[in-house]
Amino acid sequence: MDMVILVLGAFVLAGGGLLLFGLMCFSGERNALREARELEETGVEVPAVLVALEPLVRTDTLRARYEYPTADGSQARHARGVGPNPLHTVGETYPLVRLPRVSKSVHMGTVAAVRKERRDRERYVRQAVWMMALGFTACATAVTGLVLAS
To answer: What single DSSP character describes residue 72?
Structure first.
């Protein structure tokens, strides 16, 4: 009987951990999905010019700085980390998707890449919901077993 209680207690801990991990993943991915959905629905694809490549300290990555036209006609800057890739050339134009209003939410890539990112985010949110359901089910089953075993 002690072994049954020990196993059920382990299932309560594992289910609770899975439930908490699912909640953490769900909150972050839900916010990212909201941004991706907004970019897909109202995003405008504009050309961004690579103006600088700067090495980061103690890493083999670079910081790429892009300039792109904003909604009010001025130039905005966007920085992102990239790997040491010979395909990045200063002065070349790359696609960037931005919101029609002035905003810091941008996505390096085409509108098709934004759609793919949104689909991925929806899949991540769905997986987090399944993880929470599985954790809740494991906890509920184990608690029921503990109550019946006592």
So the answer is: T
Residue 86: per-residue pLDDT: 61
Contact 110, 95 (CB under 8 A): yes
Give the CA angle between residues 107, 113, 115 to the nearest 5°. Answer: 100
User: Could you tell me the residue range of the domain that residue 142 belongs to?
Assistant: 1-149
Distance of CA 78 to the CA centre of its chain: 18
Total domains, the chain = 1
Task: Write down the pLDDT at residue 61.
Answer: 83
Cβ neighbourhood burial of 96 (10 Å; 0-12, 13-18, 19+): buried
Cβ distance 125 to 95 under 8 Å?
no
Global pTM reads 0.72
Mean pLDDT by 10 residues, the chain (150 residues): 86 91 86 87 89 84 88 84 77 87 78 91 91 92 88
Distance CA 126, CA 25 (A): 11
The CA–CA distances, whole Å, from 21 to 26, 28, 68, 70 equal 8, 11, 38, 38
